[in-house]
Design brief:
It is built from six helices and seven strands, in the order E-E-H-E-H-E-H-H-E-E-E-H-H. By secondary structure, it is α/β, with parallel strands linked by helices. The longest helix is centred in the middle third of the chain and has 25 residues. The chain starts with a strand and ends with a helix. One of its GO terms (molecular function) is carboxylic ester hydrolase activity.
Length: 237
């Protein structure tokens, strides 16, 4: 799977609204209370818990598109990691990341124990992608339970990582993330999808003088669909 690229040609970044959703038909093989697919979403820094079911706009739209793509597998359930995420100091940012990691670890362990047959997809945007990458790199046993990891606009992006890179407008940026390359994901790298739009100053540091692209480009439904399609393709194996 190394070096594969999913391509989407976009003429512009058009913003549009849609609601997050879970879809699918329950499977007879699913244990009571379990879904066939568990989508775990982690929002970006400063995004409100009260909006988009705690997922943030970007993760909400990607997870909704992915739920539609995977509906034939059975019930798809989407859960937000409701960690603290403010716009404070650097120390507060790091504390929010630690909170997210703790909550993600607890949730994934619970799903793996209670619903061992569920397909688990973790989707993180911006700070959320940092939370996911750092926690899953630190705990390979936990990472084995994750069937697909989706990193969007990651500040710890490493363009040389052997991920499924979603090629959006402008191609796959060559620059690393603003906080430098993240930790090695081991075997999970082969099940990881990464999306970074050219000009995103967070996941491709130095490519833009401001964060406008980072804050809005991934809200585009076509971008969300392309990322979801890449994740569904990896899940299908």
């Amino acid at each position: 799977m190394l070096g594969r690229t999913v391509v989407l040609a976009l003429a512009c970044f058009a913003l549009a609204g849609c609601d997050a959703a879970s879809s699918g038909t329950p499977s007879e093989a699913e244990p009571s209370g379990c879904a066939a697919v568990e989508i775990v979403g982690i929002r970006g820094q400063g995004q409100f818990l009260e909006a988009n079911d705690g997922l943030g706009t970007e993760v909400s739209r990607i997870s909704a598109a992915l739920a539609d793509d995977l509906a034939s597998l059975g019930t798809v359930r989407t859960t937000a990691i409701r960690h603290a995420s403010g716009l404070g100091s650097w120390d507060e940012y790091l504390e929010d990341v630690r909170d997210g990691r703790d909550r993600l670890r607890t949730h994934l362990r619970s799903v793996a124990a209670d619903c061992p047959d569920a397909k688990i997809t973790v989707i993180g945007f911006s700070q959320g992608s940092q939370v996911a990458r750092q926690e899953l790199a630190a705990d390979p046993r936990l990472a084995r339970h994750v069937d697909v990891l989706v990193l969007v606009g990651s500040p710890v992006r490493d363009p040389s990582s052997p991920f499924e890179h979603v090629e959006l407008t402008g191609g796959v940026p060559a620059e690393a993330g603003r906080l430098g390359p993240g930790p090695d994901l081991g075997e999970l790298a082969e099940r990881t999808v990464e999306a970074c739009i050219a000009g995103d100053a967070v996941c491709a540091a130095g490519s833009s003088p401001d964060d406008t692209i980072h804050r809005h480009a991934y809200e585009d439904p076509d971008v969300a669909q392309a990322i979801a399609y890449a994740a569904a393709t990896v899940l299908a194996g």
